[in-house]
Amino acid sequence: MTSMLAIKDWKTSPPRRALSATEIVSALARLDGWKLTGDGADVAIEKTYAFANYFETIAFVNALAMVAHRFDHHPDLSVHYNRCVVRFATHDVGGLSATDVDCATQADALLAAA
Ligand SMILES: C[C@H](O)[C@H](O)[C@H]1CNC2=NC(N)=NC(=O)C2=N1
């Protein structure tokens, strides 16, 4: 069993690469509510999660921090009273990688019905 504190070691994984435009379009079609934002070095995928109150918002942020730690992949967050804007990009490839799509999927899974 893997500890919740285990961190992904990208050094032992195949190098990541930037997704092509076609791969980004097809990944976004499979994701719920995620959109492309920015351009060039600022490109990212982004989603706004809505919550009932501040406690729910922060609970989500804390759960997302565990995903970020596990993947060693850290989203930009805009945290508000009842919403959180999550933005994923991969600095190491200067664009979007499969890791952004995987982390977006994991973020959605945090809120999926049991
Ligand atoms: C050394 C470390 O694994 C890398 O710098 C990781 C850390 N977190 C990261 N987070 C994001 N969003 N993109 C990255 O390229 C990235 N790289």
Describe this protein with a few key phrases.
globular, four-stranded antiparallel β-sheet, Gyrase A, domain 2, 4 strands, alpha+beta, 114 residues, single chain, binds ligand H2B
Topology:
Layout: H1 21-30, E1 35-37, E2 44-50, H2 54-71, E3 76-79, E4 83-88, H3 98-110
Antiparallel strand pairs: 1-2, 2-4, 3-4
Helix pairs in contact: 2-3
The chain binds the ligand C[C@H](O)[C@H](O)[C@H]1CNC2=NC(N)=NC(=O)C2=N1.
Structural features, described:
This protein has helices spanning 21-30, 54-71, 98-110, and strands at 35-37, 44-50, 76-79, 83-88. With 114 residues, it is of the alpha+beta class. The chain has one domain: Transcriptional coactivator/pterin dehydratase (Gyrase A, domain 2, 2-Layer Sandwich), CATH 3.30.1360.20. Strands 1-2-4-3 form a four-stranded antiparallel β-sheet, covered by helices on one side. A hairpin with a 3-residue loop joins strand 3 (76-79) and strand 4 (83-88). Helix 2 (54-71) packs antiparallel against helix 3 (98-110). The radius of gyration is 14 Å and the shape is globular. The model has no long low-confidence stretch (mean pLDDT 96). Bound molecules: the ligand C[C@H](O)[C@H](O)[C@H]1CNC2=NC(N)=NC(=O)C2=N1.
